[in-house]
Fold each of these.
Amino acid sequence: MLQFLKYVLATVVGLLLFSFVGFLLLIGVGAAFSSSSSKQTISDNAVLKIDLDKPVQERTTENPFKGFGTFGGPSDAIGLIDIKEALRHAKTDDKIKGIYLTAAMPQAGWASLEEIRNALIDFKTSKKFVYAYGETMTEKGYYLASVADKIYLNPAGDLEWNGLTAELTFFKGTLDKLNLKPEIFRVGEFKSAVEPFIRENMSEPNRLQYTSFLNSINDYTVLRIAQSRNLRVDSLKRYADNLTIREPSDALRTKLVTNVGYQDEIEGLMRKQLKLEEKKKINYVSLSKYQDSYDDSDSGNGSNRIAVIIASGDINSGKSGDNSIGSETIAEEIRKARLDDKVKAIVVRVNSGGGSALASDVMYREVELAKKAKPVIGSMSDYAASGGYYMLMGCNKIVAEPNTITGSIGVFSLLFNTETFFKDKLGVTFDRVNTNANADFPAATHEMSPFQKQVLQKQTERIYAQFTSKAAAGRKLPIDSLRAIAGGRVWTGTQGKALGLVDQLGGLDDAIKVAAQSAKLKAGDYRLKYQPRQKPFFEQLMSSFTDDQETRVQAQLGELAPYVKYLKKLKTLEGVQMRMPFEMEIQ
């Protein structure tokens, strides 16, 4: 009887699993079929509605379960490349009459915002309207909205205009309470990534570099807004100093916005532009729907290709993830592009504050090999600093936005002495037997000897010497000149160009143009090949469940979520590191 029940139970469980998997397959096949076999149809007299109050990443992650609730995962993130491509299509699409932009609190870096803003400016050359509306607007949101023909701010809302700030978090007090002793080995007085573990505030060199690059970004932002709104730079800076913009009427009086009004009022204005009756609905087209209305395959003709290799996230050895750069993956992509005769030039697009020194060097080597065969152009996104800069310093040319964060040419090693923590907090002790004097080197469960610490420091200095010498060779700078601007110091793209770290200011499109010119390719004679390829269906399915779980955990932790994420990142600090200051957020 028990044996019979066991078989019945096994059969029931098997049927349930089969049904569940079949259900997933049915959804996946249906979604894949619908996305591949049919395109969205856009009606005439449409308005492209762009909601940028979402995370912006380099590329949109394709998800066949998008729109299927729980199975969709966190599909809110939108791709920078996709946004610009949609704006490029809409510019010449007779069915699109204008853009309705909402960007109160965009979750993007300043360089990404710059590329989107420039794409909006280019769209306006079509003489189509761009209207922006916000119940509230942060400075990032207003930076995008400032190019609009009309900017409406809700009468009960507010516009943030008080300058930029960057706040760092320090954990020394926490480590002291836990009796965790950090062992730091670094080169460069500006290499501040280790400061959160050994200080309670910013060092003077770190404060100096933050003040410098933050003011560089702010000066550029204010200048661009002044040009778009026909305002004076000194007036805009005075408004920020004096907190002049306290309510919507202040924004209207100072001409930062064109109107104080509600959404129905800006929609009334759009109806006039579209020549619609008052009760007629506006034909809004979302960004995702519009992307499904045209063929977004690589443009151009012929067999020539420009490979665009996207590398975004922390740098580690192994395979790349959705938010990480794996040296194995990126090195392989560069190698394939080098060996592919159809690929005439390579663009390496980096959005990273750094990571593993070893992994960075592995990718650097492939860049060096590739540029012997064909032009290799570096494109910097929001960040291309420390290990991110290391990846690109061997390129034939480097292109960065004025507000890109780059440089940070420095090295550090970090270990935690956990002996006191385990003994005093957990009652755990350690003992050991060695065959040689330093068999237990490096150690995390007891104090290292002065000799062992000296070895680690010399190792760190050796890698720094390697970093600076290769950077000097790649940038064709005297080693003394390179080291004078290194030391771990962070620069903006504007500053980097003046110092010789960057060749040209611009975005990804500019880098692609440089690559085409270097390969003697004319417009239309080549197609773009974006790499690495997007994840296959089942990989996306599994990652969607993982990402959804992480989203729920973050929602439960609330304000503590960033700190937990920060501490989890400590697990990746293996070996010598080339990193920017952790979790730098400019607001």
Note: The chain has 21 helices and 22 strands.
Amino acid sequence: MLTLLKIRNLALVDELVWELGPGLVGVTGETGAGKSVIVGALKLVLGERADKSLIRTGEDTCTVEAVFELRDASEINAVLAEGGLEPCEDGSLIVRRVIGQSANRQFVNDSPVTLNLLKRLGEHLVDLHGPHDHQSLLSTERQLSMLDAYAGCDGALDAYRSTWREWRDKENELEDLRQAESASTQELDLLRHQVGEIDAAQLKPEEEDEIADRYRRASNSTRLVELSGAAASALGADEGGVLSHLVDVQRLVRDLEKLDPSIRERTQGLENAVMELQELERSLADYSEDLDIDPAEAKRLEERVNLFETLKRKYGGDLAAVLGHRDRAAARLDAVENRGERLEQLAAEAARLREATDKAGLALTAKRKKAAPKLSKEIAGQLKDLGFKQSSFEVQVLSNKEPAASGLEGIEFLFGPNPGEPLQPLRQIASSGEISRVMLAVKSALAEQDATPLMVFDEIDANVGGEIARAVGKKMAALGMRHQVVAITHFPQVAALAARHYVVEKEVAGGRTRSRLYPVGGENRISELVRMLGGGGEQARAMAASLLNDAT
């Protein structure tokens, strides 16, 4: 549930710290007192876009922070993992929005996140409904997901979607091949040329560096012979060479060792140095002889390097890319030239997958059709409690022409508030008061299946009478047994049923207007209910006390 909501410098609120409890939480106050700020703060938590007009006059930033304690954090952790964030190990999730004059930021457990990620988290945290916030209920896709939740279709739906995706992929592959039948003669000639040209080159990706090295040596062979020969001569034993001088050094060292044998520890490296230099001289001589490259071989290497460069310009940055292009061209050519056989194969595979899709879809359909009348009856019963004594409600199952991602059928919620009138889709019902109560009836029917921890009802009891308001309050209180429910209301019948009652009040201090929120209980709560009843004397207080007594 939402355990803590902190608001700072948002509209008329300078600073608010609200510790909520479980069950139904009632929020009341006069019109314009600032109740809408509570809803606005929660919308920011849900990832709604914000601008600097929300910032309290004279301040640079406004901040909203919400702390959620999650009984089951698996869905939240899945979203966090996709965003590269650490999971909620202790089930605690802290969401913070900072709205500035030039930039807005959002954080989850002190890690910066995108607005899109915050919206995705919000879908799992809060279900917010106001007088006109019923688009989700009017969506047939959302209605279908509600029926699936009620029917427990998760496993059957996953199995169907997996098979459906395989079928659609195979159908797309089949359609691509059918399109290949229209391949032009020019395209086929080009594909054959490309494959033939690359095959003729007999490419090996590993030979590119080797050929390049050999070609570089062949191109510079004359200069390499000069340099290696000069180096060998400089090392040589002939007069003036390094090794000729080392012979003199060796003779002098031997004379030293005869006079003082102990010096051998200092001079023992000389013999090794002479041997290594002699080996270097021989190696340079051998290298110079090996550089005598045949002009025909040099030309062949040059032609090979030029071929590599030509193919890379045409088909890719290296030989591996050229070979990759060859494979794709060959596959396309094979698909076109042998499409008859492949078409038969793909058509058979697509037919098999279509059969499997239909089978999985029928299993899903059976669960939906079995649950639809039960859900219809459940919602109809909830509607009667909310004042629609003679209304009708039906979950209509409609077959699709073709299998869709959601199944072999769609559904439509049909509602008839008046006897004798035909049932109509919910989206065709204009009254916001009716839609609000229908939404509450659906939420009540799906209370056990709905995993959203917090439900917020913002004056959905508007445009209803006192007795209906009482029924609305009872439904929200019943929802509060399974969820945390915040009800922002003008009706004392609803407020009296709340487990906790908070009042939003506007006051002027130091020449500034600000909104504050505080809990009420005992006589203070009765006084607030009296105000909501329109004021009055002992009779109004007795009525307020009676509402509270009935709630208990």
Note: The mean pLDDT is 84.
Amino acid sequence: MERRILAALIFICFGKVFGQNIEGRIINSENSEAIVDARIKNLTSDAVVFSGENGEFSLEAEDLPIKLEITYLGFQNNYRTVTSYNETLLITLDPVRDNLSEVVVRSTIIPNELQEVPASVGLLTENDLRRTDATALMDNFNYVPGMYVNQGALNTNKINIRGIGARSQYSTNRIQAYFDGIPMTTAEGELTLDDIDQESLERVEIIKGPTSSIYGAGLGGSINLYSANPEAQGTTGKVNYQLSSFNTSKKTVLASHSSENTSFFANYSHLKSDGYRENGEYDRKSALVNAKLLTSENNSLSFLANFTQLKAFIPSSLNEEDFINDPETAAYTWGASEGYESYDRGLLGLAYTHQFSENFDNTTSIYMNFRNGYEPRPFDILKEERLSAGARTKFNLNTNIGDLASQLSFGAEYYNEWYEIGTFENLFEDFTDQGSVRGARLSNNEQVRNYANFFGQISLEITENWNAEAGFNINTTGYTLTDLYAEDEVDQTGDYRFNTIFSPRIGTTYEVAPGKNIYASISHGFSTPTVAETLTPEGQINTDLEPETGINYEIGFKGNWLNNRLYTEVALYSIQIENLLVAQRIGQDQYVGVNAGKTDHNGIEFLAQYNFDFGAGITGKPYVNAAFNFFEFDEFINEDVDNAGNELPGVPKSTVNLGLDLSTAWGLTFYSNYRAVGEIPLNDSNSEYTDSYELVNLKAVYSLNVSDYFEINFNAGINNVLDEHYAASVVTNAVGFGGAAPRYYYPGNPRNYFGGVGVRYNF
């Protein structure tokens, strides 16, 4: 008997030494339901078990501590360090946020879930940004219904939202943009996003239509970029390399670190290309650093820095004959002068958030950006320096007004910009085969431009299903122009201030059934003239110019179907623009602005996205979005020509996107997209149109986990699979000088290929 007892004791003791079990349960963090067949891996021994019917599991472990990796399709990975055998673990997994309706929109003054925002907001998630070859951020915006990007080259793009900005000649205007809350649009309304590396971004939010009640001058809408953050706690390093057609290459290095109170993300990329067309070489280096620190329980500090160095040659636009027969060529004068643009650009920002109480907080940010540019053009050489600085503060308060729960937000923003611009003769014709040669100075101006915004918004929960909100913005804008060039007879020196503008907005949303909302809104917007538009042909400031103003009327529906697997949106809108600013061309690079009339922007937008599970570890997300545009001049007499009733040039009549994203549990992901773009009027008289076109793009990615800490991935794809010949961008109302045909067209790239490899290591 004693021997049996001794043997039992020895067995128990050795059992404790050689292996004990860790027990636990896996549940969904949102509804506490058990997750069956979740994979639990002991990263120390590589042992793997799966959760049972009630989410329970038991895993043998010889020594402690150990680290567990818990994974399940459709959920974010979780990691747990175990230090005791005596504890029964309860582990939660967070669903992957692929359902658009669950995304919290941050770009509105009061953050809210997309489905409950009474406005049309376009989203580009991190997964959306992976669909392309990562060389051109702007191409991603074409996935958003209501947006269209004219893509002349990697550095020659212009965006329009619901047709606003379509008549811009070479760049984007009338649209506000922010990077982590830091303004990117210049004080006079010009915007450049070509040089932002999309691998530095976590998401993009686009508020479509007038947003002046939130951001001031922004008649077309606002684009809000949010920098990437570390994916999980710990330290990670990544290196990616990609090769593409036209001798294009991209190198990217990323590093991140995250702990309970701090996070750090850094990205460096170098993109080079010879380009499809002559005089199309491109060379861009960019770097981003994003850091966040939780300084105490109620306070946090964040820092953002982004720097870009660019030199990009410009092939410019082509006439119809060259566009059809010789699309690879550059415009003759741009090729002969070897015209290009180069600049160094930087952006710095610091934000501090303080939680006064559970219901009251403030975020205050200060920021600065600069741009030093040099651009040899056939008609002159441009040299410019820009420095901007500003601050923004916003208070949020949750309270009750009577018996109604409410959220209140209010604050102010001030922005000041110093800008020096000079032009010089370009003597390229006197120095054969040498490209641009700088000659005598032609002009030298300094501008100081400033604006201030005061804003407020209130959101009321009128009933359980009915919410309403109202907001306003008060804007003051002015500038001073100093003409430093005394060798001509024209003195452009002067001061100008636009009238104070009040921009209100009201909106409401009603939940007609669980997960299904209708909304309506009315919003006001404006955009001030650029300095170039305010100058008369004699070089004097045109003090009679008024800002463009517009009112957007919109109704829409946002809803989930089929157990939240299908998400749909429909929006109907009408925007009436008054005091339409028209840039009349009076020379090769001379324009003068006039208030020429009114435009009507009526349209329908539709979006649907479905998530489904094929089984066997394969999931899919088909999507479709479309925009049908009815944009025309209401009242428009320009140079004694009445264009009332004509279609607005520069924007397609319709756009349609169809796509399918497929993902597998073994690491293979496949992206496919079909895009159809309708014909585009080329001029105000509607005498010329582009042809409609269709594009098909494909991309595949394979990720291989070599070990628990090391991952390697491969990607390859084809753009323009059908080898479509199309106009990727147009110059509206192009004028031919000296008997030459007008150069309306920028040809799109023919069929092209890309492929790359990346490695990732978790320290």
Note: The first strand starts at residue 20 and ends at 28.
Amino acid sequence: MLRQYELVEKVLEYDPDADEAMLNRAYVYTVQKHGTQKRASGDPYFSHPVEVAGLMTDLKLDMATIITALLHDTVEDTLATIEDIEAHFGPEVARLVDGVTKLSKIEAMPENERAAENLRKFLLAMSEDIRVLLVKLADRLHNMRTLHFIKSPEKRQRIARETMDIYAPLAERVGMYEYMHEMQALAFCELEPEAHATIANRLDQLRSQDGGQVDAIALTMKQRLAEAGLKVEVYGREKHPFSIWHKMAERHVSFEQVTDIMAFRVLTESEGDCYQALGILHTTWQFLPGRFKDYISTPKSNGYRSLHTSLMYENSMRVEVQIRTREMHRTNEFGLAAHWAYKQGDRPDGEVGWLRDLIEIVDASHDAEELLEHTRMAIYQDRIFAFTPKGALFQLPKGATAVDFAFAVHTNLGMQTAGVKINGRHMPLRTPLANGDVVEIIKNPHASPQLSWLSFVVTGKARAAIRRAVRMKERAEVAEIGSKLFDEIAARVPARIGKKAIRAAVERLGMEEPDDLMYAIGAAKIADREVMEALVPGCTAGIEEDEHWERRESAISIRGLTPGVAFDLAPCCHPVPGDRIVGIRRKGETVLVHAIDCLMLASGVDSDWIDLAWGNQSSGATGQLSVTIYDRLGTLAEMAGIFAQNKANIITLMQAHIDHPFVTYDVEVEVQDVGHLNRIVSALRASDAVAQAERQ
């Protein structure tokens, strides 16, 4: 553990103007507040914040960040408050400490909700000042270094999994690869101890058989580059056990088949030297096609810059080589933190694009599971590059589609996506993008995200925005049904109901807006009697609890509402416009629309029935038919032709059974209304190829 004077000296080395008295005060404050608290290792608890502060000094961060590291656990684990911190160390430190501190109220939540709420608060604080992230990453790194002292295997596993899923990818996203590699190595050792031990043993064997080969290869490369007049540093290393394990799992290969276990770094004086060194290496040893990446001309979103190539060295040994300048190397190892040496006077930028995307995800996520799911999607980084028609570059995860691209450009563009051209050709929205694709989004101001998009989008930002839009649409349409039912309820009370009475009723029911009431009525979350009593207190006195309420004579129109959102069409009878319909309303569920003659209606005898109508000029639904054709050559094509002649699109066609010489198919078909469906049935029955056609 760093002693007080050692910590102060480390800060003064790179910042001679630092407030030494405040640093000393912060050190003493954390020691006093944590007092006799102990860590699982038996060390005094204050050793942890002191070590975290030491990690921050290694990055040469400003004094406010160092003090935040010293104090980051005081509010969570001692009697200190944010107000105390502000009084002693100022508003900037208090704001940073609050960003890192976990909310005390989340301790009573279930594990997944607690993790999600903690992550939500952390991301929001990080968006205002990314130094919050730097302290949190150092905090997690030191906790991982001492993870083995925790006795509970379940707790160790949980912390290691959270580190692997959240914090290591976050370290990668800000380019702190040194932190990322160590977190992954420590988490991997805990999560997959057998795999870690096996790979470590194999590496030990290779090392014992190596005979200094890594150093020899590095020296040969350095000599070859020096002969060309380049001043470089070259050093080799083995890949980390986790990196090897990940490659084995990704490529489905054994340890022996991972041929690029050794990797070499070439550090040059300038950017031009990087490309010159690349040319020399490629002309000296065989280059492996498809393994070259230029992250200098096209940096990763976290600022990472380097040339990557793979060479076939002597004796058919394959090695990876990374070529970069010394400045690039420092940035690549410590990422955004490398830019913030105090002497440069720089301040963190919380408005980097990927971080704004995370904040949108926080706003759009509905619950704990969604937040964790969307965030994991957003921070993992196996990327492809795609361009707008004007040449703007966007990085996306592998497997991303045109819809993901649209939301990456701008949320509003994603919301209005109606089609796409990829490399000038119209393509389906679900088409996965490839590196270098030029993507033109066709938008329509009247378009809206579809629930089906969730089956193919891969980015957290797109998924969160789509779910939010679908929820808002569902709420609006359910509230529209509720407002029509409200008119019916209001007609029963012995008073004329105006806006003032509605506002009073909303207040009595503990709601905020009239829309909340309409939604509750539409979703059957509130009984008619409760609404009447809220509108006119006492008006239901003397009325029996189970007394049947007469519905109004005019049916409620569902025209303009979206199937699958405000209501669902019953799969048992597949009603289409023109059928007489009723709705079954159950608490917390969407209205289920049945044809009036559906046999399944008997199962809803205890439910709330609503008299529904399609509304004028309603059109478009799915009809379901059972068609029996003769089992001979060409009859299936003739049946399909009848659908085409009647301008009906087949959605699904499934063989139900064969009873030679007949074959029966279940067919789902798009129709305009019941008249359209009846014409199709008549045409099928008139065909010599069809033995029987019935609507199901």
Note: The first strand starts at residue 233 and ends at 238.
